[in-house]
Amino acid sequence: MHDSKIIVALDFASSGEALSFARRMNPQQCRLKVGKELFTLAGPDVVRQLQSLGFDIFLDLKFHDIPATVARACAVAADIGVWMLNVHALGGEKMMREAANAVAGSKTQLIAVTVLTSMDAQDLAQVGIAQSVDEQVSRLATLAKQSGMHGVVCSAREASLLRETCGDDFLKVTPGIRPAWAGSDDQKRIVTPAQALKDGASHLVIGRPITRADNPQQALEKVLLEINEC
Question: Is 107 known to be catalytic?
Answer without folding.
Answer: no
